[in-house]
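Q: What does the assembled structure look like for these inputs?
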Amino acid sequence: MSSDKQRQTPPGDLAFFAKSQLLTSEEVERALKRMAHEIVERNHGSPQLSVIGLQVGGVAFGVRIAQLLSEILGTEVSLGFLDVSFYRDDLHRNPIPKSTATTIDHDLTDRTVVLVDDVLFTGRTIRAALNALSDWGRPHSVQLAVMVDRGHRELPIRPDYVGKNLPTSLDEAIRATIEGVWIGTKESS
Amino acid sequence: MNGSIRGQNLLTLNDLSREALVEVLDTAESFVEVNRRTIKKVPALKGRVVASLFFEESTRTRLSFETAAKRLSADVLSLAVASSSVKKGESLRDTIATIDALGIDAVVMRHQSSGAAMQVSRYVPQVRVINAGDGLHQHPTQGLLDAFTVRQVLSERAGTSGVETGAELFDGLKVLIVGDIRHSRVARSDIAAYSALGCQVRVAAPGTLLPSDIENWPVQVVNDYDEALEWADVVALLRLQRERGSGSFVPSLGEFTQTFGLTLARAKRLRPTTLIMHPGPMNRGVEIDSRVADLPSAVVERQVANGVPIRMAVLYLTVAGTNEGVS
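A:
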């Protein structure tokens, strides 16, 4: 039974077709290291850090950034994952995104939260994430780290840490993982 | 076969595919986590209006549907039928029209007549209708939460999560449904869910409490009840529905308990891992011995607790999203 595969690409979901690779896994790793150092530098002396990876694409990046921060700081940095499906403002307009688990096991009140995602596009996911975060307390501040900023913002949201700025056209698609970054198109499978 | 309940009515489980069922179970898993939070509320249905219409009494179903709607930030209109114009003889059609005029997105409805939810869905095609039990026909969310409870308990035992298991643990799972099958909408929804998920389903009941068309159901009728208890991985008991006249289908309640009740002596035939389920409210001492109901393998309270996340998932999938772009 290939139910796992079916779950990943339910009927009608768009599949990603890569055109060319823009970053290798080594380049992604180097970008993450630079971002981790920027996070440490900028938050020198600020309250405790919490890294929150956004489901699904931001999870692996969140895990890696939390690891790098723990190594640099010499103390364990808290890590959580957030699914924003139930907070989206475009539920009426698009097919419902598949929901996944949220695991935030600590109160975020007075912490410095670093949201981590793979690609920053319209900014609507981040808006949903900011709404969701308020259910876990009142952070001291919230910062945003993304692997790729592809432009086309629809909301006044900007990233604090960027792996790579990639100006794109609207009909292009970006796939960013720990293994690398690709540009391509999304088509129905 | 329906591949998803997104943007659809939920009137019956009979035409749902395995994928559609698993989608509801997986979505409910996310809502279990929401229900564990300090702030148990998400804005998914903010500004939507859900009407709850219970023409038949209910405690757990109505409360858990209304709780589910509120935790999704929907506004809930609750019609207390006993104190409404229904008592003055208002027809179902007019009652629905009145409520629809207030501007609603969904109706959660329980009615004593089979097919009432389907009828309402024709009156108000733009409103999503969720059947919360219609006569002897269907009780879809009960079937869903029963399957969800089985998957949850069995995947916990295996040290994994329900989402990771998918539907594989249902393959060949042995489910025995016992009691008043004839009058039970729960049995009909359970059988639809379990068989679509790939379980082997058997039923055990006195001949008078089997429906006349049982041979068309995807089940096997058990001749030897005691042997079936040893066979089963899951034993699902049903309430003897005295309000539907079940009492007159058996010689006496005592006789029913002796032959088909899950007594303490009979429960000893079960493997210690076999799940004992009951949709509630239980007639302790009739279909289930009080001591059996309190065994660790009895998951009745889990079933009730899972009512809220399952109903959140159903409301979310049917009401929140459009079906556009999904074939």
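The first helix of chain B runs from residue 18 to 36.
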